Amino acid sequence: MADDELFKALGDPTRRLILDELVEKSGQTLFEICSRLSMKHRLGISRQGVSQHLAVLEAAGLVESRREGRYKFHDLNTAPLRRITERWPAPGGSEAKENTP
Amino acid sequence: MADDELFKALGDPTRRLILDELVEKSGQTLFEICSRLSMKHRLGISRQGVSQHLAVLEAAGLVESRREGRYKFHDLNTAPLRRITERWPAPGGSEAKENTP
DNA sequence: ACCATAGGCAAGTCCACGCTTGCCTATCAA
DNA sequence: TTGATAGGCAAGCGTGGACTTGCCTATGGT
């Protein structure tokens, strides 16, 4: 299953916080995310730790990155999350697939 | 976070298969789920293993159980899954909350 | 040229978690 | 009561993964 990487990525609380931060502000660099986790969430984690988390999130397709000079900007991509609600649809069944008509 | 249990529950591939089986047929017993995993998915797992998985799914609110005599039936509850798409809404924002109008 | 910044790679540690094994309880049928 | 079925509890093993530490590359400023 390709879903393995998606659910594994969501399995860690620190990675979920990173997604939260990317919702608030798109296109952050690694250092920017580091300092945000440290400031707002009192998260004592090394830069490498965050870097590894971002790699997992990228493998899951939840984060996309673009390089510019010596900076690397990270953007959130929520599209893979749809696979979750599609796999186990609500019993009502009306909102299984809602696309813009 | 109470979300910890939800995402932890979804993190294991065997547990996701159990949810799949409960979508197909609601109200299965432990032994029924065991044999289904073994037959359809060639899953070599002990009864205790499945039992522990069901406990995790129940803690996450994804599975509800009811006892009747010596049987314990398990039902799927997809409601907690909504918290995922609500936490990281799609950028379009039109489908953040879709309720039956 | 130099140094600081932004990031990557690799090895090593440590703990949570998936799974098994063994034994125990409860309900139903003969 | 005896036996079979459905399930629970607890201890133990082994592996994956989160995190750190140390060193390396590349870009930009002065």
Number of strands of chain A: 2
What structural class do you assign from the helix and strand content of chain A? mainly alpha
In DSSP terms (H or I, runs of 4 or more residues), the helix count of chain A works out at 5
Q: Uncertain segments of chain A of ≥5 residues (pLDDT<50)?
A: 94-101
Which architecture of chain A per CATH?
Orthogonal Bundle
Q: What topology, given as strand order, has the largest sheet of chain A?
A: 1-2
Indicate the CATH topology of chain A.
Arc Repressor Mutant, subunit A
The total domain count of chain A is 1
Shape of chain A: globular
Please estimate the helix content of chain A: 40-55%
Reading off the top of the CATH hierarchy, the class of chain A is best stated as Mainly Alpha
Short characterization:
Two copies of one chain form a homodimer. With 101 residues, chain A is mostly helical.
Please name the defining characteristics of this protein.
DNA-binding, globular, mainly alpha, two-stranded antiparallel sheet, 101 residues, homodimer, Arc Repressor Mutant, subunit A, disordered C terminus
Report on the architecture of this protein:
Two copies of one chain form a homodimer. Chain A has about 100 residues and is mainly alpha-helical. Chain A has one domain (about 5-85): Winged helix-like DNA-binding domain superfamily/Winged helix DNA-binding domain (Arc Repressor Mutant, subunit A, Orthogonal Bundle), CATH 1.10.10.10. In chain A, about 50% of the residues lie in helices and about 10% in strands. Chain A has helices at about 5-10, 15-25, 30-40, 45-60, 80-85, and strands spanning about 65-70, 70-75. Chain A has a two-stranded antiparallel ribbon with strand order 1-2. In chain A, helix 1 (about 5-10) packs antiparallel against helix 4 (about 45-60) and helix 3 (about 30-40) packs across helix 4 (about 45-60). The longest helix of chain A is centred in the middle third of the chain and has 13 residues, at about 45-60. Chain A is globular, with a radius of gyration of 15 Å. Chain A starts with a helix and ends in a 14-residue tail after the last helix. In chain A, about 25% of the residues are buried. Chains A and B meet through helix 1, helix 2 and helix 5 of A and helix 1, helix 2 and helix 5 of B. Chain A binds a DNA duplex (30 and 30 nucleotides) through helix 4.
